[in-house]
Description:
Layout: H1 8-20, H2 23-31, E1 42-46, E2 52-55, E3 67-71, E4 80-84, E5 92-95, E6 101-105, E7 115-120, E8 129-133, E9 139-143, E10 149-153, E11 163-168, E12 177-181, E13 197-205, H3 221-230, E14 243-250, H4 254-265, E15 269-275, E16 277-280, E17 283-287, E18 302-309, E19 315-319, E20 336-342, E21 347-353, H5 367-380, E22 386-392, H6 410-415, E23 416-418, E24 441-446, E25 451-456, E26 468-474
Parallel strand pairs: 4-17, 13-14, 21-22
Antiparallel strand pairs: 1-12, 2-3, 4-5, 6-7, 8-9, 10-11, 13-26, 14-18, 15-18, 16-17, 19-20, 20-21, 22-24, 23-24, 25-26
Helix pairs in contact: 3-4
Amino acid sequence: MRRLISSFAALCGLLAVAAALPATAAQAAGGADTGRSAGQRWALKSQANGRYVTVEAGGSGNQQGKVRAHGDQAGTWQQFTLHTGDKGGTVSLRSDATGLFVSAEIKDAGSHSGMLRNRGTKIGAWEKFQLVPQPDGTFALRSQANGKYVSTEVNGTGGDQDLLRARSDRVGAWERFAFERVDRDSPAPAPAAPRAARLNVMTWNVCGNNNTRCGNAHTGADKLATEIASRLRPSADGPLPDAVFLQEFCEKHAEPVEEKLEQATGRGWNVFFAPIHYNAGALKAQKQCDNAAAGDVDRGAYGIGLAVPDESSWFQRYDLTSPDTDIRGGKTEQRTALCAALPSRALLLCTTHFSAGGPAYDDADGSFRRAQAGELLRIVDQPGYRTVFGGDFNVVPPDAAKGESRDVLEPVYARYQECAQLGNSGAPRDGRPTIRDMKIDYLFAPKDAPFTSCALSPQAEPSDHHTLYGTIALPAA
């Protein structure tokens, strides 16, 4: 649910930030709720002066949004997420405070040539940097725009003191930065006693970026939100979902989808997001969704989404063991899982998207998907919680008539029941195809919480996956 500001101080702080930002920054900040996006967050500490890299809220003209190393602690204005549009070859720094990318101003002159400013609304050449590891564990940042290393101008004066500029041809103390993780995992809150309830769940790989043959491949947020809302029910008289799992989803679509869900259901929702990463040397960077076809609009990071009732405020991303390269030597996506808790219902909801299989993809022999299935079983095992989980597992079920790596989900079926089994855990472990002639999309629940229905949408378009629906009868304690 769109959050209400609960204190006057917080309201004043947000108004001050909005006043300091230009219109483009305010728009970008509103496009992705960083508080509900579970990507890695970093603070950069300059080795030249021991202070944190900070985005300046004030200033005007070419001084607006300048970046200096003058923070004494890693607060909101010192936090960044790393993004990549080229599989980790370069990274771009997005400010948590503004939602904008850091740019190297290579057309400025004199002492401001190459200065860094936080003003990029999308990733271009000026927003790309190479991470160059140093022997002491720090990193240098080399601008893709001019080939220069970023320096901390510790000898500057006034507003230019500790200014960051891409202007050096070599790496010295002024060009070294320590990257410190500032996001932290937290345990799920204690659950209440389980009570009997009926739960309706929907999962859909929306095909929002990877496959250009999909109608959703480069769609905008409003169009996708409308499409999701149009298929919330398995039939005209079917139940509305209590949770929605989304794969191949773009970060900046989360807020419009949340608003559309609230309009369509009359209930409050939270939509959480977890990015899929690429390895960028020793660090990870979030894969960036391609810009929307209409208007070249930035759609944020690429990954998975989880829509749950707005009572949920705890959510967690889990990185899954993934191959670093495919058979051609290309970098591959580092997969993830995402969970949210509903403590009052003793309910944990999780979604994931496993590595792709087959000889032309990431995981040719299924070994990584086997590891991911084992990791997922450990993730969903939260004491006191009943867990319902699913998504695109990129593998066929154990009793499928054809398909590779059919043993991957054997351990999952041994402990949980899949919706196509329809309340009978001894039923064949197969199901109707969810993409072309294969089933690779799933919904699982505890074996003492039988599915009372399992359905597919009649059509897949504008995705290449059908939507999968399940209704679960959750027992009391």
